[in-house]
Automatic annotation (TrEMBL):
PANTHER family assigned to the protein according to its UniProt record, in alphabetical order: TRANS-ACONITATE 2-METHYLTRANSFERASE, TRANS-ACONITATE 2-METHYLTRANSFERASE-RELATED
Positions of the UniProt region annotated as Disordered: 1-32
Keywords attached to this entry: Ubiquinone
UniProt-listed SUPFAM superfamilies: S-adenosyl-L-methionine-dependent methyltransferases
InterPro entries, per the entry: SAM-dependent_MTases_sf
Keyword Nucleotide-binding belongs to the record: no
CDD domains on file: AdoMet_MTases
Protein name, per record: Ubiquinone/menaquinone biosynthesis C-methylase UbiE
Length: 252
């Protein structure tokens, strides 16, 4: 298992060996919320790939009668992806960053979509309880202190037959993917972050946290260990091929 603790105490805004300390991540997303949609809009395939992960959940009947959880919804891009494949579902979208949720709520949503300010670990305390028919967690797991415990919580939130989809960066198993990730981060993402927001801590965190996160094989193993069946993964097209993946599992 990868050691994700910083090698020494990390000052606020200082990016350690594995990225920002977990407790600082939401506040940095708060600070970057105003520019987040514009930045991800410059990423070719960003929204298409979220829609691909949502479609891979194979939710039936346009979502009619289904209850879905978008865990780590940010400004609502993953929520829109779920809504696109399941327009008749009830969707509960949750994020730990108040700033990102504020941006999400400014967008037009049907009454079937509800946003909740909560960490992934404290859903029940904030009124988010199961069962759900599907959970989409995009770019969430590597930002948690205990991903294994969270996967078990996701398993318990699903009804039998419910599906989990993790949409996540994973480059550790592929030298080509690691090289692509390094080039894109330092050639595009970090410079754009500096130019747009005047700071780079969040974007350097993105680079480091992905570098220290699981390989895709290890991530599939985590999902199996949490009790999921039929666990498999699919990657994306374009420069994100081998870099961004959907890991899917079903609660039996």
């Amino acid at each position: 298992m990868v050691d994700r603790s910083p090698s020494r105490p990390t000052r606020p805004g200082t990016v350690g060996r594995a990225g920002l300390p977990r407790e600082q991540v939401p506040s940095h997303f708060d600070d970057g919320a105003a520019d987040y949609d514009r930045l991800v809009g410059m990423n070719p395939g960003y929204h298409d790939h979220l829609r691909a992960s949502a479609a891979r959940m194979r939710l039936p009947r346009d979502g009619a009668g289904l209850r879905l959880l978008d865990a780590g919804c940010g400004t609502g891009a993953s929520t829109a992806a779920l809504l696109g494949v399941a327009p008749r579902a009830e969707i509960v979208a949750v994020d730990a960053s108040a700033g990102m949720l504020e941006r999400a709520r400014t967008k037009p949503w049907p009454a079937s979509v509800r946003f909740v300010h909560s960490t992934a670990e404290s859903l029940a305390e904030n009124g988010v309880v199961g069962p759900f028919d599907g959970i989409l967690a995009a770019y969430l797991l590597r930002n948690l202190d205990d991903p294994d415990a969270q996967l078990r919580r996701f398993h318990d939130l699903l009804r039998p037959g419910g599906v989990l989809a993790l949409h996540e960066y994973s480059v550790a198993d592929s030298p080509r993917a690691r090289l692509s990730w390094h080039a894109v981060c330092w050639g595009i993402i970090v410079p754009l972050g500096r130019m747009t927001t005047g700071e780079t801590a969040l974007y350097r965190h993105l680079w480091r946290s992905v570098n220290t996160f699981d390989g895709i094989g290890r991530l599939r193993d985590r999902v199996r260990a949490a009790g999921f069946d039929a666990v498999h993964s699919e990657t994306m097209t374009g420069w994100q091929n081998g870099v961004v993946h959907t890991v899917l599992g079903t609660r039996s």
